[in-house]
Structures are given as structure tokens and as C-alpha cells.
TrEMBL record:
It comes from the Bacteria. It is found in: Endoplasmic reticulum; Golgi apparatus; Lysosome; Secreted. Homodimer. The monomeric form is inactive while the homodimer is active. This is Carboxypeptidase Q.
């Protein structure tokens, strides 16, 4: 009997210990979620992130990949982040092929002579001095060009007149951008002398959208330029050219000048809120520091950098350290081919297993309306708990199919859990890659809601101890 009683007491003690541990874990989780909510509330009054964007776009301006301006931005960011008190602030260097426009004009010649408003696409080859002159051949879709007979294209300037669909998610961009990337290669392969596209944008203003082309050679390595000159027409000029073509043959003079170099310096700027007990585990918040040269890179992607810096600084101001390290990465040379994201993945290959969560802000500064995840099946309850905190800030739960963002796509493909705080992109592509990408396009309250969301989920990820890779329980 005594042995039975002792066994019963042992079982009771073990049960009590388990219950106490569970209660302690629940209390800790409740405290983490409560602090995350307090951080989000503080984010609605943020000035740190918004000031970061204002100063970057005012004091530095456009930051073309590989240019002296991008280097000035890196130096500026290091000084700012150091002064703000972040830890381990440094630059991780790499090189990129360099391209810069020097001049760009297009003009219809002949009886209907008139200028066309264009901008060269990043990586465009130059025209001969004085420009080139050729007849236009129009295709409604990239697929139509791909299916065309070479004889119908050879010696002509290809014009792809494909529209972009406006959506809240920005989903229309993925389809529309294909023509920008592929037109020069496809057209050159059929003997064309140049390529024009309707701008990849949703506006109807008379200012074109730039953006990069596919300039990889047969070896897969990116070159400074693609095979032929390439430019984007503003939407009204694309309409004008289409109307002229309805009336007969059209000849255009295209004149593009560029400067190039096989290799130019670039780099990623790193700053951290150093963690405590599990400081080797990393929650990564990313953006890209470079921009195209037409505007001042405010919504693409100065805003993203301000959002992640503002969110990280809110956490840094808490008493004590977060359990895990929060790493802010201001990626370089995203616009010309995700060079910064690839460089980071290479340089940190040995520690990717320590990256517990990653996210990137690179879709402007409008309100976040949905929170997507890409977690292990056993971590979906964690997603629901984060989404529960974010719901009070107007953020709806999303699915578990998040991509994370352009620069951290390589991390997601390597198995790092990612989240996508999805911003409202309804008018983002009205300004994207244009001279109108300027600081006045940022609405402060929407920007601050972004800071709130990033601060909340980043803190939860850093402090909760949750395993976002957790597989499903085989007994479920």
C-alpha cells in the first residue's frame, strides 16, 4: 500500500509540475502579446521611421544601384543607424554591373512628326550616335511577339502595347513586368533593332515608368546592358503611337545614351537590436536602399526602410533586450536584379538555419490590410495568435502562402519562415519607377500603421520563443 501511495504522490507531483509549467508558459505568452500591442500603439505616433524616409529622400535623393549616390546612401545610413543606437552597424560589400542613362529621346518622323515621351529601361543598350531610325511593328502581348515570324520583326523597332491591370494586391505587376524584362532579348533574337513597351504602370499620366530588363548573358551572368536599346513609353504616348499605326506605317527615331561598367561597388547595410539569451537566433526585417534615378525613391523603397527602422527602434527602446536578435537589412542593388538579396544569402549561408523569421517592406507605404505567413504546419496556431494582435489595426488574416518579398525570396526558398504584411497597392503602380516617386506621396497615418504592424510581429517573433518551422504533429 505504501508503495502505491508513494507512486500516486509522484504522479500528483509530476502533474502539478506540468500544470505549473503550462501556466508559466501561458503567462509569458500573454505578457509577450500584451507588450506587442503596446508597441503597436506606440507605432501610431512614430516619428523615427518617417523622419528616416524624409531625411534619406531629401539629403540623398535618388540612389541608382552601383552609383556614387548609392554609396552616399550607405554611408548616410551607417551614420544614422549608429547615432540611433543600433548595434553591429556595418556594410557588407559586393559588386554589380553598372548602368546609367545619359540621354533619351524618341520622335516620330515623316508627315506626322512629333516627340514621344520615353524613358530608357535599366540595362538598355545605347543607340548609335545620333540615334537609330526604323519602322514600328506593334504587338498587343509579349506572347504575340514570341509567336511572330522573324521576317516580320527583323530590322524594325518592336512595340509591345500590353496593359497592366490595377489590383489591390499588385498582382497585375507580375504579368505586366514580363514584357519589360523579356522584350529586348526576344526582339533581338528575331532581328529587331530596338524595343519599346507601354510603361508597366496603372496611371495615365504623361510620364513613363523605368525598370530593369533581363541582361543576363548565355552564361547566366548579368551584363551592364542587354542586346538592343529598350525604352518605355508613357501611357498617353503609347496610345498615340497605336493610333498613328492605325493610320499607316510609322517610323521612329530613337536616341539613347548610357554609361556602363562591368563592376561597381554596392553593399547591404546591417544594423541590429541585439538579443539576449538566444541572440544567435535572428528575426530579419528587410527593405532595399537603392532606387531608380527618376524620382527620389520614397515609396520604392525609402518607405520600406523607414518602416523597418522605425519598428526596430521601438523594440530597442524597451527595457532589457529581446530574447532573439532583430536584424535590419537595408539591401543594396535590388532594382537591377536582387543583387543584395543574393549577396546576403551567400554571405550568411552558414547561419540561415538560425533565421527564425524574415519579412520585407517593399510595396510602398499604404495601409497593411492582410497578414500572410509561410510557417511549418505545426506553427499555424502561432500565425493565428499574431493575426489576433494585428486585427485591432485593421489587418485581416491571410493564408500560409506568403512569399516574404523580393530580396528575402532566396531565404524563403532556403526554408526560412517568412511573413508578408500585405499593403494596399491600389495606386502604388501609378508612381512606381517614375519621377513622381517622391516623399509627398507618403500618407503619415498609413505609414505609422505599417510601423505598428512590423513592431508587433517582430517583437512576438523575437520574444515568444516560438518555432515557426515546427512541423505538424504526426498524431494530428
Amino acid at each position: 500500500m505504501r508503495l502505491i501511495a508513494l507512486a500516486a504522490l509522484g504522479t500528483l507531483a509530476a502533474s502539478h509540475t506540468f500544470t505549473a509549467a503550462a501556466e508559466e508558459a501561458a503567462d509569458r505568452e500573454a505578457q509577450v502579446l500584451e507588450t506587442a500591442t503596446s508597441l503597436a500603439n506606440a507605432g501610431t505616433w512614430d516619428n523615427v521611421g518617417l523622419q528616416f524616409v524624409e531625411d534619406l529622400t531629401t539629403e540623398i535623393g535618388p540612389r541608382l544601384a552601383g552609383s556614387p549616390d548609392e554609396k552616399r546612401a550607405r554611408d548616410w545610413a551607417v551614420a544614422e543607424l549608429t547615432e540611433m543606437g543600433f548595434a553591429n552597424v556595418h556594410v557588407e560589400d559586393f559588386t554589380v554591373p553598372y548602368w546609367k542613362r545619359t540621354h533619351e529621346t524618341a520622335r516620330v518622323v515623316g508627315a506626322s512628326a512629333q516627340p514621344l515621351i520615353i524613358t530608357a529601361l535599366g540595362g538598355s543598350a545605347p543607340t548609335p550616335e545620333g540615334g537609330l531610325e526604323a519602322d514600328i511593328v506593334r504587338f498587343e502581348l509579349l506572347a504575340d511577339l514570341q509567336a511572330a515570324d522573324d521576317a516580320d520583326v527583323a530590322g524594325k523597332i518592336v512595340f509591345i502595347d500590353e496593359y497592366m491591370t490595377r489590383t489591390q494586391t499588385g498582382a497585375g505587376y507580375g504579368l505586366a513586368v514580363a514584357k519589360r524584362a523579356a522584350c529586348p532579348k526576344v526582339a533581338a533574337g528575331k532581328g529587331a533593332v530596338a524595343c519599346l513597351i507601354r510603361s508597366v504602370g496603372t496611371d495615365h499620366f504623361r510620364r513613363p515608368h523605368t525598370g530593369g530588363i533581363d541582361r543576363r548573358g548565355p552564361d547566366g551572368v548579368a551584363k551592364p546592358t542587354g542586346p538592343i536599346p529598350a525604352a518605355a513609353l508613357s501611357a498617353p504616348d503609347a496610345d498615340q503611337l497605336a493610333r498613328l499605326l492605325e493610320r499607316g506605317a510609322v517610323t521612329v527615331n530613337l536616341d539613347i545614351g548610357v554609361e556602363t561598367a562591368d563592376a561597381a561597388p554596392s553593399g547591404n547595410v546591417i544594423a541590429e537590436v541585439e538579443g539576449g539569451a538566444n541572440k544567435d537566433e535572428i528575426v530579419l526585417l528587410g527593405c532595399h536602399l537603392d532606387s531608380w534615378d527618376l524620382g527620389t525613391g520614397a515609396i520604392d523603397d525609402g518607405a520600406g526602410c523607414g518602416i523597418v527602422v522605425g519598428a526596430a527602434k521601438l523594440i530597442d527602446q524597451l527595457p532589457g533586450k529581446p530574447d532573439r536578435t532583430i536584424r535590419v537589412v537595408l539591401y543594396g542593388s535590388e532594382e537591377i536584379g536582387l543583387f543584395g538579396g543574393d549577396a546576403y544569402a551567400r554571405q550568411h549561408a552558414d547561419e540561415l538555419g538560425n533565421h527564425v523569421l524574415a519579412s520585407e517592406s517593399d510595396h510602398g507605404a499604404s495601409y497593411i490590410w492582410q497578414f500572410q505567413t509561410k510557417f511549418g504546419d505545426g506553427a499555424l496556431d502561432y500565425a493565428k495568435k499574431i493575426q489576433g494582435v494585428l486585427a485591432r489595426y485593421g489587418v485581416a488574416p491571410g493564408d500560409n502562402l506568403a512569399g516574404g518579398g523580393p530580396d528575402i525570396g532566396v531565404l524563403a526558398r532556403s526554408g526560412v519562415p517568412v511573413v508578408t504584411p500585405a499593403q494596399d497597392g491600389w495606386d502604388y503602380f501609378d508612381y512606381h519607377h517614375t519621377p513622381d516617386d517622391t516623399f509627398d506621396k507618403i500618407e503619415p497615418d498609413a505609414f505609422r500603421q505599417n510601423v505598428s504592424v512590423y513592431a508587433a510581429f517582430a517583437y512576438i517573433a523575437a520574444q515568444s520563443g516560438w518555432d515557426f518551422r515546427k512541423p505538424a504533429d504526426p498524431q494530428d
